[in-house]
Design a protein that fits this description.
The structure holds two protein chains of two kinds.
Chain A: H1 2-6, H2 9-28, H3 39-46, E1 48-50, E2 56-58, H4 59-99, H5 102-122, H6 126-152, H7 161-174, H8 193-212, H9 217-237, H10 239-242, E3 255-258, E4 261-264, H11 269-292, H12 294-304, H13 306-311, H14 316-342, H15 352-365, H16 370-389, H17 399-414, H18 423-435
Antiparallel strand pairs in A: 1-2, 3-4
Chain B: H1 2-47, H2 54-72, H3 80-116, H4 120-142, E1 157-161, E2 164-167, H5 168-190, H6 192-202, H7 204-209, H8 214-240, H9 248-261, H10 266-282, H11 292-306
Antiparallel strand pairs in B: 1-2
Helix pairs in contact in B: 1-5, 1-6, 1-8, 1-9, 1-10, 2-3, 2-4, 2-8, 2-9, 3-4, 3-8, 5-6, 5-8, 6-8, 9-10, 9-11
The chains are: A mainly alpha, B mainly alpha.
Chain lengths: 449, 320
């Protein structure tokens, strides 16, 4: 009796929603400590709160009310969602067709570029001006690079931070900020770090990729994860070469000096923003050209079906290594810009956490969709900057990663192709899932990624 | 070259002198790795997936055990029967917590994707998400600083092997892990349940046609692996202490152990764990302590490249 009641679809949905809301309540609540391990839990549910100023009560009442509201919306959606969706898609069909025309897309991209150029003058605020560099532009650069590896070629790289670290350390090395003597015996300008960094990360990408990219997808993930950890361990302990755990704090600002033209970057964030924006645009152009080229099609083929791709004469290893190296290049760039803008680097900033944060940016926007990844990265990084700048009560910086984890699971359950999926990727995932429809109890997984 | 020869000679002398001492520590570590590795291997057997969230199962066991110890251990270190009781309670709590965490991960991060028959990349990402969510939530609720477990026993030398002391802690690990491995071997090899697990590992589709409830089998596999992982977390915490991200490094090593022994092979996981623990401990003589993790990891890469099926070989479906 009770069991059949609980198994009715709306009741099940209510229970799931209440459970999810209870978890949200916990992760938005006050922190606990190992001395008072229950304080976080009791605080999360029993602390005083108000429901949009309507009535003052305890948190659990507020959240229960929110859960009921959410349940109501979900029930309405299951009843009327299909009609709303079909109507909205037919209403959007016209604009969508227009938006897919090439001149419209180019015009839109140019408008965004102009907005990007004007942005630091629009947000006339010291924190947000520097946040545009340190939180947004650098991360967009990293995300579009990781997108080449994860999105285009379908390889899960959890050691992406290593390439960023190599870029940053190369900058420190070239400018003579490390205990290791700089190349050619004298310190060069930070600008010269860019070619060095790109060459080094590409070499590192090939060295790491060539042996490991033969492995299955999940093995690859673990090997790259370990590679990222090893780079951090070395950076932390090779005092004579990397400066050890204290890193270095003497990286000079870059100077561009070719012929009569000379420009020096200083402490102000806005010039770095333009440097980063320039690199983002450069890599956006390179990556979208690559995506549409023979190489991009080979990546897609390998991602969709490696065996079939191989039978068509594509050498999977070659193209996978290429994806690794190409994706690493933008991380190297990002490393150079960060190191020279900050003037310092510490090995403790290059952790697995960092790699996963970049992965989240790629997944939110949509693996394989360049515009999606850019939008996803901007959304998450602006939220992160806001939370760090003006933390709400009970929020600590590491709490962000709880949300990040929850977001990864949620995206994989409800929208694996991302917020703004590339059309091809969306088709691919739905085709894959349809083609594996079989016996209802079948749990076989594809052994291809 | 001469200085390198000298380096090797002096270090081999140290190795000879310290061998049994390092060996005992290595066996204790190795048994812990093996208990975690078994969890990876079980899940790999039925799902063909590496459970990235296994490190957090280990961590939940560590915390559950820590809270039991905090509640039970008073101002003086308990002895005799009280010690045994507290340790048994800690193991029970840690095993339960590990099993609960594993069930949660399976229900939230795996089952919805299985229903949709998602591609492999999706599973990896959602499992990473689950791991991230769990350990950072633990950090929020229990603080981000490491805390040491109250000691439920006097850690004296019980006996010596070739002059190397075997501590109470080592003995506890040995007894608990051997009991659990025997129980597991019996469960998987001799019971109806184990037959279900093995059949799903061999061929899930056929198994379901033969009337094996696949969802239930997978859930139970997670519970069994989770219980072992949780207990390992408790035993690890007894010595090292607990902290929100305590699972990361041991889990990476346990995964190495599972691959080393042949992933999907239960006995292989035990062999791999022991081997990795001992080799890693002996390497302390040759490399600085900071680089020990690099050694374990180098072994992983080497095994994957040279013999990806491990020492005993992948025995998918014949996990006996």
């Amino acid at each position: 009796m009770i069991r059949s009641f609980l198994e009715r679809a709306p009741i099940r949905r209510l229970l799931v929603i209440v459970g999810v809301v209870a978890v949200i309540e916990l992760i938005t609540g006050p922190p606990g400590s190992n001395q008072y391990p229950t304080s976080g839990f009791t605080g999360s549910y029993a602390e005083a709160a108000s429901f949009f100023g309507l009535f003052r009560t305890q948190r659990w009442v507020v959240f229960l009310a929110l859960a009921l509201v959410a349940w109501g919306i979900v029930e309405l959606w299951t009843r009327y969602g299909a009609t709303i969706r079909s109507r909205s898609s037919s209403a959007l069909a016209g604009p969508r067709q227009v938006s897919e025309k090439r001149p419209v897309r180019v015009g839109f991209a140019l408008a965004l570029l102009v907005l990007g150029i004007l942005l630091p003058h629009i947000v006339n605020n010291a924190f947000w001006q520097s946040a545009l560099v340190t939180y947004v532009a650098i991360y967009v650069l990293l995300a579009i690079g990781l997108n080449v590896v994860v999105g285009f070629a379908g390889l899960l790289d959890l050691g992406y931070v290593a390439f960023y670290a190599i870029g940053a350390y190369t900058t420190a090395w070239v400018t003579g900020a490390l205990p290791t003597p700089p190349p050619f015996g004298h310190a060069l300008d930070a600008f010269w770090a860019i070619p060095f960094a790109v060459v080094f990360v590409v070499i590192a990408g090939v060295l790491l990729g060539a042996p490991t990219l033969r492995l299955r997808g999940d093995y690859l993930a673990i090997v790259t994860l370990g590679f990222g950890e090893i780079i951090t361990i070395f950076a932390n302990n090779l005092y004579g070469i990397t400066g050890g755990s204290t890193g270095t704090q003497q990286i000079p600002h870059p100077v561009f000096h070719v012929g009569p033209i000379k420009y020096s970057w200083g402490l102000a964030p806005v010039p770095y923003y333009y440097l980063a924006l320039g690199s983002v645009v450069l890599f956006l152009v390179i990556f979208s050209l690559l995506q549409r080229s023979r190489v991009g099609r080979a990546w897609t083929a390998i991602r969709e079906d490696e065996v079939a791709a191989e039978s068509l004469g594509i050498n999977p290893l070659k193209f996978k290594v290429m994806a690794f190296a190409v994706g690493a290049a933008s991380a190297g760039f990002a490393g150079v810009i960060t190191a020279s803008a900050d003037n310092f680097l510490f090995p403790s900033s290059f952790t697995l956490t960092f790699s996963i944060n970049i992965l989240v940016l790629v997944i939110l926007g949509g693996m394989g969709s360049i515009s999606g990844v850019v939008v996803g990265a901007i959304i998450i990084q602006v939220i992160q900057a806001y939370l760090n700048h003006t933390p709400p009560s009970g929020y600590q910086q590491p709490d962000l990663y709880i949300y990040v984890g929850a977001l990864l699971i949620t995206m994989m359950i409800f929208r694996p192709a991302g917020l703004i999926p590339s059309r091809q990727r969306r088709r691919e995932i739905s085709l894959y899932e349809e083609s594996h429809e079989g016996h209802p109890d079948e749990v076989l997984l594809g052994d291809d990624v | 070259m001469g200085s390198f020869g000298h380096y090797l000679a002096t270090h081999f002398d140290t190795l000879k002198a310290e061998f049994w001492f390092l060996f005992v520590g290595g066996v204790a570590n190795g048994l812990l790795y093996a208990m975690v590795a078994v969890g990876y291997t079980l899940v790999y057997g039925v799902l063909r997936l590496i459970n990235f969230a296994h490190s957090e199962i280990f961590m939940s066991g560590g915390f559950a055990g820590y809270f039991v110890l905090r509640a039970m251990v008073g101002a003086t270190v308990p002895t005799g029967f009280t010690s045994v009781l507290i340790i048994v309670l800690g193991i029970a709590a840690a095993g339960t917590a590990g099993a609960a965490a594993a069930t949660l991960v399976e229900r939230v991060a795996y089952r919805p994707l299985r229903r949709r028959r998602a591609p492999q990349l999706a599973y990896l990402i959602s499992a990473i998400g689950a791991s991230y969510f769990l350990f950072n939530l633990a950090g929020k609720e229990f603080g981000h600083l490491s805390v040491s477990d109250p000691q439920p026993y006097v850690n004296h030398t019980v006996f010596t092997i070739f002059g190397a002391p075997v501590l109470m802690y080592d003995l506890i690990i040995l007894v608990v892990s051997v009991i659990m491995f025997i129980a597991l071997d019996w469960l998987v090899g001799r019971t109806r349940l184990g037959r279900g697990i093995r059949s799903v590992a061999q061929d899930a589709e056929t198994a379901s046609l033969m009337g094996v409830n696949i969802d239930r089998t997978i859930a139970i596999t997670f519970i069994v692996g989770g219980a072992l992982g949780g207990v390992a977390g408790f035993l690890y915490g007894l010595n090292i202490g607990v902290v929100y991200n305590m699972g990361f490094v041991p889990a990476l090593k346990a995964f190495t152990a599972a691959v080393l022994g042949g992933i999907g092979n239960l006995r292989g996981a035990v062999v791999g764990g022991l081997l990795l623990g001992i080799v890693e401990n002996l390497c302390v003589v040759f490399v600085q302590a900071a680089y020990i993790d690099v050694v374990a990891f180098g072994i992983l890469v080497l095994v994957l490249l040279v013999r990806p099926t491990g020492i005993l070989g992948e025995r998918l479906g014949r996990t006996a």
